Amino acid sequence: MLELRPNCECCDKDLAPDAPDAMICTFECTFCAACVETVLGGVCPNCGGDFSRRPVRPAAMLRKYPASTRRVLKAEGCGPARKVA
Question: Domains in the chain: how many in total?
C-alpha cells in the first residue's frame, strides 16, 4: 500500500493525500510536479527512475488507511539527478 507521504522531498511543499501535483517514483520518493519538472528534469535523484502522478486514495479508504505523517526531506538539498550505476 502506498505510504502517501505528506510533502515534497525537495522543497518541503505540503502535499495532501489528494494533491493533483504529487509525483512518485517506483520507490515512493515523493516530489511536487514543479520540482520534478524544473529542478529534477523528470528523474528521481534517489534512484534514477522516472515519475508518475501519485494515485488518490478514495476518502473511505483514506479513513481506514490514513496517509503517512512522516516528512522526508533531502538534507543535502535537491538538485538534478545523477546517473545511478
Answer: 1
Distance in angstroms (rounded) separating the CA atoms of residues 64 and 43: 32
Question: Which residues constitute the domain of residue 60?
Answer: 1-66
Q: Which of 49, 1, 18, 83 has the alpha carbon at shortest distance from 36?
A: 49
Q: Which grid coordinates belong to 74?
A: 533531502
**Would you say residue 85 lies in a domain?**
no
In-domain check, residue 81: no
Q: What is the pLDDT of residues 14-61, one digit of tens each?
A: 999 999 999 999 999 999 999 999 999 999 999 999 999 999 999 999
Q: Quickly count: other Cβ atoms within 10 Å of residue 18's Cβ.
A: 14
pTM: 0.87
- Domain assignment present for residue 44? The answer is yes
